[in-house]
Amino acid sequence: MLELQNIVKSYNHQPLLSGVSFEVREHEILALLGSSGSGKSTLLRIIAGLEYPESGRVVWDGTDITDVPPYKRHFSLMFQDYALFPHRTVAKNVAFGPRMQGLSRADIARKVSNALLSIRMESFANRSVTELSGGEQQRVALARALAPQPRLLLLDEPLGALDHSLRVVLLEEIRQTLHQQGMPSIYVTHDREEAFAIADRLILLHQGKIVQSGSPQELFRSPTNAWVAEFLDLGNLIEAQIDPQSPGRIQTGLGTLVMQVDCQNTSPSNLLIRPEVITLSATPTQALNEFPALVLDCKFTGIFNEVLLQFSDGVHLKAFNLLTFAPRDAVFAAFAPQDLQCLPT
Amino acid sequence: MEIIKHRRNQTFQATLLWLLPLGFVLAFFYRPLVTIFSLIFSPQFFSSSANLNLSKTVQPLLFTLKQASLSTLFTLLVGLPIAYLFSHFQFPGRKLLQTLTFIPFILPTVVVAAAFTALIGPRGWLNLALVDLFGLKTQPIQWQGTLTAVVLAHVFYNLSLVVRIVGSAWSRLNPRLGQAARSLGATPLRSFFEITLPMLRPALTGALLLVFLFDFTSFGVVLMLGNPTQPTLDVAIYQQALYYFNLPQAGLLSIIQLACTLLISTLHDRLGTARTGKYAVQSESNALRQPRNIHEKLFILVSVLCLLVLIAAPLLSLASRSVVALEAARGERGQFQTGFTLRFYQELFQNRTGSIFYVSPLVAILNSLKFSLATVLISVLLGILASYALVKEGALNRLVLPFFMLPLGASAITLGLGFVLTYNRGFFIQEGFPWILPIAHSLLALPLVVRTLLPALRNIPANLRESARALGANPLRAWLEIDLPLMLRPLLMAAIFAFTISLGEFGATSFLSTPSNPTIPVAIYRYISQPGALNYGQAMAMATLLMITCGAGIFLIERIKLPGEELF
Predict the structure, then answer these.
(1) d(CA B93, nearest CA chain A) in Å
(2) Rounded to whole angstroms, what are the CA distances from A89 to A104, A128, B102?
(3) Residue-wise pLDDT tens digits, B4-36
(4) Is residue B203 less than 8 Å (CB to CB) from chain A?
(5) Which architecture characterizes domain A2-226 according to CATH?
(6) Which of A87, A148, A154 sits opposite B198 (nearest CB)?
(7) Which segments of chain A belong to CATH 2.40.50.140?
(8) Any bridge partners for residue A76, and if so which?
(9) pLDDT band at A334 (very low <50, low <70, confident <90, very high)
(10) Which of A50, A87, A130 lies closest to B179 in CB terms?
(11) Of A70, A81, A130, the CB nearest to B183
């Protein structure tokens, strides 16, 4: 379906995208995840045809469409601020795409009512879009993008302008709608939870380059480097040194740790200790990699406690635990060798 | 109890502030208006009804509508691409060109008329060049005294209104609306007609009505460039009152004129300000961009060239014509030299006596300066009071505002006629300093002064004064420490506006100035309508000086105005 080949783009002589390639498969929902300035929105605009790359190609089903204007691509783009036409009603906004396709009045009316039905806003058809709430506008924008049945749906931070509780509800709605429609989609966001919830596959962009791509599970389980682990908020990262003389062991601020995996070829290195793998006990258990620590803070987050620990060398780690501790409690923290991961910087 | 007392106090303050500005408008707008009305309902009107002629009334009205419609149409056609140019593209010389576009708007009508005379008149550069180039016997361009010249000058005059109003709205249009349309399958052309144009409609309507209003009430340009047998309402009022002394006919035309301008202003307030809200228009302007392809580069090149020809050509013709002698002055046959000369400027400051109407140009210059300074004083003082009164919201304002705003659309000629009928006596027309002139000029400058001061005043956050007072400053001290420093810039701008308006005012002045007490524009008109190369040259020289003064004023305003501040 869609294929990007080595897309390069700069802004004010600063490289914005430096050689990005990926493809979108049939029925696939792809999330482009990255912080602001990573180039993800520009990439989406290049796919939509609103901007042109300096080099590289945009290919659809084997045909180069890099220079094809947006209105001939049959893609739909949904903007973060929705860009609803303020001088048109809800129904006329939704009807815009089908009208441009030159459909008959009856067909347009049918498409509009189907689209409004799918977002449960039939009764809003003749309302002005400026009277709608943020969530309602978001749904109309989605219906408008879906109505012309595009070959590819592009969504640019579609929940970015909404508050948290509304996002949770609407995220689920978008997820269901996209899966029902089965049309290939690219979902741009900076929010990990959104991307994980909605995407079949994720592409992580950083400084104009793809850092990692894969399913949410793959990214979660095996981040390729420390930046990915930090961006996805996977857990504690501490500096680590590898001693070539003693394989299976690693030097950290905590002391020497026993590892199951071999870290020889990831030097210099970071050690990822996920909060959920740290076991805590009030008394020593003689487990491997066990160290005494002081509880600095303990707060209840719902299912478990988030415990902030201080170790002898001033290293701080966050741990999730079902037990409740009080600040200044002395505890013993252990990390199982198979749960530790070495990551390059 | 305290609250009621406080409210009463506020109303009392607002009443006090309104007292002077409203009194001024009542005395110098409404009273002359009543005089004009009473003229129509007087026995004199009916006894002189033989002098009243339906065609003398209907024809000027129809012609005014025709020329204003044509002028507005062409202004819009030229203005839209230029508005697009300035609101979208970054190119070398952009800022300078933008300021240049704004110069004509502030130029006195006589200067514009003189400039077009210098360009396309019988003795203008274009005709001189064509005659010389092709060895013609007659001047090929016979536009002087035609509708073409009037329309051309009006486009030149009001282009900046379209560029500013529409350009400002265009640059703030949410660009994602058009992009959304295109991603939904709309071609650029379709997206323009379905999205951009409807979004720009309020700004377009506003600009259109304002340009129409200015074209409708245009006087100097029509008088000097148009056909005298085809007068507009304003010119007809002038002719009936001053040439034929047919005051009832002039009064009738004035009433029609007033009704029309009132209608246009009302339409402008109703339609020109409707907004589609924050969804369509952003508070920030979009970033300007470099041209992307050859089409855009070509568009910029062609627009800039057209703009230069339209704006710069008349101005340069005027300036160059004032320093070049081409024909002999009277009594100089056989011995004059053609080419560069400063003689026209030197003549301005020499005291030659000719006809009994003759007054030294220097006197006119000094008169103009005196009246302009007096106008600055009156209009800025009244403008400050009115702005402070308007900044407080309240029932009184809603009641008073329409009365205060009504004179804004009135034409200078109607004003002049009313003044002549009402205040043609004593103190107002005393020989040394006829107060009637700065008063009339102030009435015309007041709207722009208020429009400059009021937004600035509204922008001063109330908590600045409140914290000054909480820190121990009394009200006067708080005003001196907070308001005055923040208002200095807009006050200076308002003063420059008032000064240039008074300096260039021609319509009312041509009614009110006595032969021995002319102003610069009146003198230019007299010179230009008399035969002889010296008179023509002096008119050009004086108009050039006036143009430079007003141009300097505009550059000054552009310098001191804050970025993003709009004047309309």
Answers:
(1) 20
(2) 19, 4, 39
(3) 555 566 667 777 778 888 888 888 888 888 888
(4) no
(5) 3-Layer(aba) Sandwich (3.40)
(6) A87
(7) 235-344
(8) A153
(9) very high
(10) A50
(11) A70
Tell me: do B190 and B242 sit in the same domain: yes
Residues of B in contact with A129 (CB under 8 A): 279
CA distances for A298 relative to A323, A333, B554, angstroms: 10, 14, 67
Task: State the smallest CA–CA distance between residue B74 and chain A in angstroms.
Answer: 27
Is residue B358 very low, low, confident or very high in pLDDT (cuts 50, 70, 90)?
low
Q: Would you say B28 and B418 are in contact if contact means Cβ atoms under 8 Å apart?
A: no
- The residue count for chain B: 568
Q: Inter-chain contact B279–A129, Cβ cutoff 8 Å?
A: yes
Cβ A101–B276 below 8 Å, yes or no?
no
Query: Looking at chain A, which runs of residues are DSSP E strands?
Result: 2-11, 14-24, 29-33, 55-60, 63-64, 75-78, 152-156, 185-189, 201-206, 209-214, 236-242, 249-252, 255-258, 269-273, 278-281, 290-300, 305-310, 316-321, 330-335, 341-344
Q: pLDDT of A28-69, one tens digit each?
A: 999 999 988 888 999 999 999 988 999 999 999 999 999 999
Per-residue model confidence as pLDDT tens digits over B444-462: 888 888 888 888 888 888 7
- Are B46 and B64 within one domain? no
Q: Say which DSSP state B281 is in.
A: B
Strands A55-60 and A63-64, sheet pairing = antiparallel
Which of A74, A77, A130 is opposite residue B279, by nearest beta carbon? A130
Q: Does A144 touch chain B (CB under 8 A)?
A: yes
**Location of each CATH 3.40.50.300 domain in chain A:** 2-226
CATH number of A235-344: 2.40.50.140
Q: Which of B184, B191, B194, B205 should we substitute to test contact with A (largest number of A Cβ atoms within 10 Å)?
A: B184
A129 touches chain B (CB under 8 A): yes
B523, B366 Cβ separation under 8 angstroms:
no
Q: CA–CA separation, B279 vs A323, rounded Å?
A: 51
pLDDT of residue B336: 54
Per CB-CB distance under 8 Å, the chain A contacts of B182 are: 49-50, 69-71
Q: Which of A186-190, A266-270, B25-29, B451-455 has the highest mean pLDDT?
A: A186-190
CATH code of B124's domain: 1.10.3720.10
Domain that holds residue B168: 52-321
Which tens digits make up the pLDDT trace of B47-88?
655 556 677 788 889 999 999 999 999 999 999 999 999 999
B280 touches chain A (CB under 8 A): yes
Of B53-57, B292-296, B337-341, B344-348, the range with the highest mean pLDDT is: B292-296
Whether A85 and B180 lie within 8 Å, measured CB to CB:
yes
| Contact yes or no for B186 and A77 at CB 8 A | no
Query: Helix, strand, coil: what percent of chain B each, to 5?
Result: 75, 0, 25
The more confidently predicted of residues A163 and A219 is: A219
Interface check for A276 against chain B (CB to CB < 8 A): the answer is no
How many structural domains are present in chain B?
2
Average pLDDT over residues B470-484: 81
Q: Is A157 on the interface with B (CB under 8 A)?
A: no
Say whether B183 and A144 touch across the interface (CB within 8 A).
no
Domain identity same for B39 and B68: no
Evaluate whether B450 touches B518 at the Cβ level (below 8 Å). no
Using CA atoms, how far apart are residues A129 and B338, in angstroms rounded to an integer?
70
Listed by number, the residues of chain B in 160-189 with a beta carbon closer than 8 Å to a beta carbon of chain A are 174, 176-177, 179-188
pLDDT tens per residue across span B517-528:
788 888 888 888
Lowest-confidence region among A172-181, A192-201, B210-219 = A172-181
Band (B432; pLDDT cuts 50, 70, 90): low
Say whether A79 and B198 touch across the interface (CB within 8 A).
Answer: no
